[in-house]
User: Fold these one by one.
Assistant:
Number 1:
Amino acid sequence: MTQSFDAAIAAFAPRLPLGVGFSGGADSSALLTACAERWPGQVAALHVHHGLQAAADDFVRHCQALCARLSVPLLVRHVDARPAAGQSPEDAARQARYGAFEALVSAHQTQFAIKNIALAQHADDQVETLLLALSRGAGVAGLAAMPMHWQRAGLHWHRPLLRVAGRDVRQWLRARGEHWVEDPTNQDPRYTRNRIRAQLVPALQEVFPHFRDTLARSAAHAAQASELLLELGAADLAAIGTPPRIDALRALSPARQANVLRHWLRTCHATTPSAAQLAELQSQIAACRTRGHAIRIRVGRAWVVREGALLGCYN
Ligand SMILES: Nc1ncnc2c1ncn2[C@@H]1O[C@H](COP(=O)(O)OP(=O)(O)OP(=O)(O)O)[C@@H](O)[C@H]1O
């Protein structure tokens, strides 16, 4: 199931022109180089400058040098990725990055008309993401890890290297005599992802030599299950109405009720409920048999309340 770097690039068929998320690290340096050589004049590099990181200027300098050698335009956007309360620094940086990519594409629309963006996560990143999801007790959506293709904000996003082992990406770049900038935070043991990479992955490799393939298969099964749950949630919500009728909710099995409640809360833009919040909401719904039983439960920043025969959600 893992692919060689060259096979992954050969199989990649985006609509051109293509934007490549280019951090200056090894993986995106390799992806940008391969794409620029395959589609000369049709690729732009998108770089997000995280001003807070001490090494941010080194990254930009490397990006400028490689783009000049490849004759690729470099579009740079500065972001302030300070985490909001309760948000991890990685999450804040990721959110800021997506916003910056979208803003870059839209600011240069007349010049480049980019509709497709490629990112350079590879098979090892996928394994780390899946193990991180397990460490957090994630549900099927989390265990699906990263999709290879998806749409967001009117753009098509791709991860063409998702089946290529990380060492093969670096080897490809090294064989070309290219350099890259090492992100110093990748070694920082305060981040769980780094401890997974340094300690857990080598142990897994020893016990399950094919763990990259088997974990990728599990992630693909979870992705399929997650899609089915989304479809079921949408169908059930259409049947019980929006806002949901409490008696119709109570007629569902507990698992199906939990699924449709998650789906409804997502449509209300409430945060995904924790397992404890969902269990509390379900036990309150079960207690609604008593006339006048009130429901008032906090879900993230939203409140779920009983309004007669219906549930309401207020952000
Ligand atoms: N500052 C950035 N500017 C532009 N793209 C970025 C930036 N940071 C990450 N990306 C894109 O998102 C992908 C995933 O980022 P992440 O930080 O998880 O990867 P990484 O393993 O450090 O990759 P790389 O070696 O390319 O930096 C990168 O491969 C790259 O395509």
Note: The beta strands are 18-21, 43-50, 74-79, 116-118, 149-152, 155-158, 296-299, 302-307, 310-314.
Number 2:
Amino acid sequence: MASAAWSSLSSVCSNANAGIHTIRSNSRIQGPSTELQSLLPEGEDAATSASADTCNPNAVHSPFLKFGAGQTSDKTPHINVQHELSSMSDSYQLSGLAAQQMKENIRVTVRFRPLSSKEVQKGDGVAWYADGETIVRSEINPSTAYAFDKVFGPATTTRGVYDVAAMNVVRGAMDGINGTVFAYGVTSSGKTYTMHGDPVSPGIIPLAVKEIFQIIRDTPKREYLLRVSYLEIYNEVINDLLNPTGRNLRIREDVQGPYVEGIKEEVVLSPVHALSLIAAGEELRHVGSTNYNLLSSRSHTVFTLKIESTPRTLDPYASMGERIISQLHLIDLAGSESSKTEATGERRREGSYINKSLLTLGTVIGKLSEGRASHVPYRDSKLTRLLQPSLCGYGRVSLICTLTPASSNMEETHNTLKFAQRAKRVTVQATFNQRIDERFLIRKYQRDILNLRQELDWLKRGMQVQSNMSSIHAENSSPSPQEVTKRDAILIARLEEEEKTNRALAERIQRLTKLILALSKSNSKSHNSCMLHMRRHSFGGVKGEAVNSIDATSSKNDWDYSMPKEYSTIQAKNDDLKLGSTSQMDYLNVTKPERVLSICSSSMNSSRDTGSDVGYSDSETYCSKQSCDFVMDSCTMHGEMLLKAVEIESLKQDRMHLQEENASLRTQTDKLLEEASYAKDLASAAAVELRNLAEEVRKLSLKNSDLESKLSFLQNEASTRRHYDMFRSESSTEENCDGDIYDIESWHLEPADLMREIYARRSRERCLQAALAEKEEIESKLLQKLEEGRRREANLENDLAGIYAQLDIIRKEKGSIERLTGNPSSSENGWILYENDGQEIESSLLNGNFKEDRFDVDKLEDNLKHQKKSIMKLQAIVSRLRRTGLEGPELFFLEEIQKMHMEALTNLFQAKVCLKGKHNSDDDYQQSDGEYY
Ligand SMILES: Nc1ncnc2c1ncn2[C@@H]1O[C@H](COP(=O)(O)OP(=O)(O)OP(=O)(O)O)[C@@H](O)[C@H]1O
């Protein structure tokens, strides 16, 4: 998927020194820290004294004190293994560095979080605290203390933790050393806060991602490929957090160790991209609420960054395909849970899985810390199986133990400290993972094999010039057609030249033959004896004296003895030629067949001369002539051979040139192919990035349009309000304005403005509708009240009718009394019933000032009339309200109605009281007289 997608991430950076990484060994130091040194017997280190902590109140439970980067106190000597890797890209010593292995301990740091508000509320105190930079001490029992590489107090920022606990591992990973950083601690101790952080305080993971990209930018001489994967181990099941369908994945093993089968690996091109993937993964992670933590991680998560880098070079073979590959695991473990964690159902089940895997981790760490070659139960949990290469393999490991100082978690914190102390004893080896890329190696070997084959062919066919032509065609089939035609033309030209030379040679031979024939005619007499001699000589028969004398001066060879001396030299040269040295070939170039022939003829002449001088017989002369013929033939043959050899040699050279050209062409083609694949991968990676960007842009534009619509809605609403206010305040002039306001067409608006106006009108319409509904509601309420008033009025009328009836009775009774007593009361003395003065009525009644003539009936009637009038008024108001907008006056009207009803009731009550009083006084009067019944 992402195998070849090389991200060209490096950019020009002014800081050329940024690529320098100093790797300090985390190797065990030679002595304890200054503070603790004074507490230990001389010559004894903390390791030996650790077991005696019960006796020594200040004993510290760690054999290892100050380590590595940042701990360069003069008083704490430590082994520094430094490798300047700045020039790694250009002069990386492959085998040398690959062999570097640095033994070091797991770096263990401890981080305290502040007491939470919940713990403070509970009244928790501080049970453990950071005593200096490296010691954790118990508040309850100060003799119990543990030392680590670094202890961070509650005020330390995550950046501070990163610098000490993770930076070394991250930089090591960039240099090719596998690295693992993991956070361990009880639930709610701050693991997720440390690894992931929050927007205010970014955690180790975002900080690591940021630094990795910074290093890439600062190292322009290398090119990097970054791939990330993110998984969780939930209830011993591995889920892919980058792929929702990747559930229940299996762990497999190959030569490089265990790996998760089918896990999705995403190529990342920017920190934002990597962090967005983490954020997406976090969405899929299992979290739940416990009584300790609202957002408790219910699974272990492993965020892995695979870093590959190669030198940036034009020649792929120059770097021998050297590639640095490393993995960086950033692990946020789920928190161990105590029995105090009230959990039921699913939470309990999760808790038991978490505890089981952490227990296995503890056992594995314990076994490794013992340093003995006993069985380490890596396979007992998925977590330890995945961590196996980190814990026992070749890489750097940093353990960050998160602690809560709360006294309620004292015991759990103590357990964490013990675990951390055991982990401190585990040693790992920081090894550079440098690989020769198999693909490059294969290609290189293929090229070598091809060269060797060609050489072999060349050697095999070296002497066959004819077949060579075809073989050249066959071998060099790959060059372009133009090149082939060009080469063919050259070869044809050569052939023609060769033929020409051959023809010239043949002519010379003919001439020489003629010359020889002419000579032979003159010596025809000695032909037979010469034949005999020749035969004898040929078959090694009886040799003459002269022959013997030649023998004595000639070589051992029967054939050679008759050869001229100069020819022997040529023969020797020719033999040497077979060895194929270039200088000899040069010599042969000079030693042309013409010269050979001239040598032969001169030899022949000289032999003739010599023959005469020494007195050879005819037969001997003939033999010599025959020999000369033979030599001539031989010379011709050799000359031809020499010519051929020269030709072959030049062809060989041509072929070599062509082969070299061919090889360089192939190399170039390979390079081009490589670059093409690189460009393709780059394009695909860019496409991924582009897709992501497009997605982001889409989201942003959606948001934007959403905001725009909201804004326009708000603007419309504001304008609607304004319109509505205007509408209300200028309701009297509304009719006049109507024509202007609603005649939109006359406005000649732009479409956008028109739309806005329509929006405004719609929202105004909505407002008006709401106001209308409100008005109708108020109206219906008022109508109800009116109805009630009417009902009360009817009741009052009934009451009045009753009162009238009673009054009639009273009048009748009074008339009869007057008639009986003959003492009519003065009609002028009737009392006046005041509307609101019941007391006066009462007092009048009590004083016996009862004036029947002008009794309250009229008043009541008046009252009733008044009330009717009031009701009429009310109705008028209501109808007016119906016509106009309603705001506020209803309260006033209601009060009015209420007041009127009160008045009416008071009047009725007074009237009743008056009537009752009168009635009673009449009764008294009748009883006192004793006549009435
Ligand atoms: N160093 C710190 N400074 C301030 N607040 C912290 C610190 N560490 C943790 N917290 C707070 O403590 C609470 C618990 O932290 P966190 O969720 O990281 O714990 P955890 O160990 O991951 O818990 P669990 O194992 O249940 O997931 C969070 O509200 C977090 O903000």
Note: The pocket of adenosine-5'-triphosphate is lined by residues 113-114, 116, 185, 187-193, 293, 295-297, 334-335, 402 (CB under 6 Å).
